[in-house]
Design goal:
- The complex is a heterodimer of chains A (425) and B (230).
- Chain A has 13 helices and 16 strands.
- By secondary structure, chain A is of the alpha+beta class.
- The N and C termini of chain A lie far apart (46 Å).
- The mean pLDDT of chain A is 92.
- In chain B, helix 2 packs antiparallel against helix 3, helix 4 packs antiparallel against helix 5 and helix 5 runs antiparallel to helix 6.
- Chains A and B meet through helix 12, helix 13 and strand 16 of A and loops of B.
């Protein structure tokens, strides 16, 4: 991939193609993963850890560049400088900043946070980077030896080719499938001034949600999506007459590494939008859980996902489209995204699952967080992660009113889940 | 501490529930607020680049106008052709560049401003050349265009539903506007009436009527959506 004395560069993976095209002057698709340690972070040691990871993670230390026909990623001239965290998560990453590096490493008291522009990786790949960074930092700080297990990579090893591949190209089916979908209800809300994101974090004991999900015969993701759908249905019922109501659908990202034997650290995720139509009647939580479970079971299969991947990679492989200059492609991609990308779900419920840590590292870690930003037209999003026996449900919003959060967390409390609330403002 | 309304546990020291706003009564908590989970560092977004570009552009245009005026004055002894350059540049600046000074230019302010500047330019040109076409042709035609454009901007901006009906109605209004435009042309320049406007009006009426029909007939609309989806 790289010649000597020339910078490493790589084309965007199939999912990342859309992100540079759809970014706006006050919005782009950035997400954050963080780890809270038991002691305050030493920024100098953290900087050393960041520097040492550069050869091991060449697909993360990249900056966004614009070519004639496509955007591409190029190796950074120097690793990013660690900086103190901002007053709120996911502050807007400007084009200038992406031109330097598409990731930010932040620290605040005992927390290390990394914010990634989505062109680099998805939540699963980014978690490998964060775990390895934390392991390296803890090794430097406490002189402990942390084995390369449970998502931590060996820094001494060279990066494997499979870690850098665009797995979408490898696992695309021969025949694409097109799934026409109906538009979903759009949550209302008066936008915050500026680019401020309000975050409400629900801290829940790690075993509470699996126990509740077991009662309803579904997974934690389905349970939370169903509770969220119930809250959105209630908001729509109050604000829109039944005849004009739209389907309530929750966008759930699916980590394709669980379906295909991929080791890539780049994007390898697709979303599905299970939902219900409120014009057909009312739904109990059990009915919502059942509906979502069945819809996901029908959609999330290797065959259907491969067909959907094929549909996505088809335009990328089209020779005519390849030859269209990027300044012409960008507005078309943006128009398609506005028309289809964000209209098919009310909000995301993104679950990064239970994160295991190497035994040598776990005593130094209090908890882990995963926060996705709001979409351009959605005012709300929800993401969750479980680590060290604590589940953190992060609800972010760009609107003033916490109506959805209030309904969602109150409903969880009603269902017997103990929730402690933290906010950033 | 728990919120009595939501039932969630709250951070120590908060004065009200962040979800429902219910005040928290906890005498032993004291005046100390909750521990900060984020720093007090805010990002700084610079408007400098845009403002610098706008200021440079303004200075360059001013310099060009002054240069044109000086050249015209030195060569012909009067304002002459430089008048057209100065008036045209000023109108262009007011219509297209002035909104760029603002972070979020409001179209309901700057679209009327653009038409006013165009109207003023045409008036000055008419007066400067001694023409008699402003009040019977340029003014009503600009006014008509302004009404249609402002109406379209307002409808698309503030009416969230029925885009297909709005587009259909606008196309029909543009068709009617073509007839009026030819009437103004006929009154001012004594050209024959209905030489071109009838064809244009018929085309706009057909397209507008079809869109309204598609808006009313749902199967037709859904078929078109499927057919023309990019």
């Amino acid at each position: 991939m790289a010649r000597e004395h020339s910078k490493v560069w790589m084309p965007l993976d199939n999912a990342a193609l859309i992100f540079p095209a759809i970014r706006r002057k006050n919005w782009n698709n950035v997400f954050r993963e963080s780890v809270t340690l038991t002691e305050d972070v030493d920024p100098q040691l953290l900087q050393r850890a960041v520097d040492q990871l550069m050869p091991r993670f060449p697909s993360f230390y990249l900056r966004l560049r614009r070519g004639v026909f496509w955007y591409y990623l190029e190796e950074v001239t120097a690793p990013p400088r660690v900086q103190e965290d901002y007053a709120y998560p996911l502050t807007f990453m400007t084009g200038k900043e992406m031109g330097r590096c598409c990731l930010r490493v932040l620290y605040y008291r005992n927390r290390i946070a990394v914010e990634f522009f989505h062109v680099l990786s998805d939540g699963g790949g980014a978690m490998v980077y964060l775990k390895t960074l934390t392991a390296r930092y803890l090794s430097l700080r406490y002189g402990i030896d942390i084995p390369a297990t449970d998502g931590v990579l060996d820094v001494q090893e060279p990066p494997a080719a499979e870690e850098l591949e665009d797995s979408f190209q490898r696992y695309a089916a021969e025949h694409p499938i097109f799934c026409p979908e109906t538009e979903a209800y759009r949550l209302p809300g008066k936008r915050e001034l500026g680019r401020f994101n309000r975050l409400v974090t629900g801290v829940i004991p790690g075993d509470a949600l699996p126990a509740l999900a077991h009662r309803y015969g579904c997974t934690v993701t389905v349970l939370l999506a169903a509770v969220m759908a119930q809250c959105v249905l209630a908001i729509q019922a109050e604000q829109v007459p039944r005849k004009r109501q739209k389907p309530v659908k929750i966008t759930i990202p699916v980590d394709l590494r669980r379906l295909f034997p991929s080791r890539t650290l780049r994007n390898f995720v697709l979303t599905v939008n299970p939902g219900v139509d409120p014009r057909l009647g009312t739904y109990t939580l059990q009915e919502l859980c059942d509906a979502f479970t069945h819809q996901l079971a029908a959609e999330v299969t290797p065959q259907r996902m491969a067909g959907r991947i094929a549909q996505n990679v088809e335009p990328q492989r089209n020779k005519l489209l390849k030859a269209v200059p990027v300044f012409l492609k960008t507005p078309v991609m943006r128009a398609v995204y506005d028309r289809r990308g964000e209209r098919l779900g009310c909000l995301n419920v993104s679950n990064l699952g239970v994160q295991k840590l190497p035994a040598a590292m776990a005593p130094y870690v209090e908890r882990m967080e995963f926060i996705i930003g709001v979409q351009y037209s959605y005012p709300n999003n929800c993401s969750l992660i479980t680590a060290n026996g604590v589940t953190l449900v992060n609800m972010i919003r760009s609107t003033e009113s916490p109506e959805l959060e209030r309904r969602f967390f109150s409903r969880l409390v009603e269902l017997g889940v103990p929730v402690a609330i933290e906010t950033n403002a | 501490m728990y919120c009595v309304r939501c039932g969630v546990r709250l951070q120590e020291g908060v004065k009200a529930c962040p979800l429902c706003g219910t005040p928290v009564w906890c005498p032993e908590a004291g005046e100390r607020g909750p521990a900060a989970t984020y720093s007090d560092r805010y990002p700084v977004y610079s408007r400098q680049k845009r403002l610098t570009v706008m200021a440079s552009l303004t200075v360059a245009l001013l310099a060009a106008m002054v240069a044109c005026f000086s050249i015209a004055l030195n060569t012909t002894g009067q304002m002459g052709w430089s008048f057209y350059v100065i008036a045209g540049t000023t109108a262009f600046y007011l219509a297209f560049l002035l909104p760029l000074w603002f972070r979020r230019p409001h179209p309901m302010i700057f679209v009327p401003v653009a038409f006013l500047s165009l109207c003023l330019l045409l008036f000055l040109l008419c007066a400067y050349t001694g023409g008699r076409w402003f009040w019977t042709f340029a003014f009503p035609l600009t006014g008509l265009l302004a009404i249609l454009t402002i109406g379209a901007v307002a409808l698309y901006r503030y009416v969230k539903r029925g885009t297909i009906f709005i587009t259909g109605g606008l196309l029909i209004a543009i068709g009617g506007g073509c007839l009026l435009a030819e009437l103004f042309q006929h009154l001012t320049f004594q050209t024959p009436m209905f030489s071109w406007s009838l064809y244009a009006a018929a085309v706009f009426l057909l397209f507008g009527g079809f869109l309204i029909l598609a808006g009313i007939v749902r199967p037709l609309r859904e078929h078109l959506e499927r057919k023309f989806f990019i």
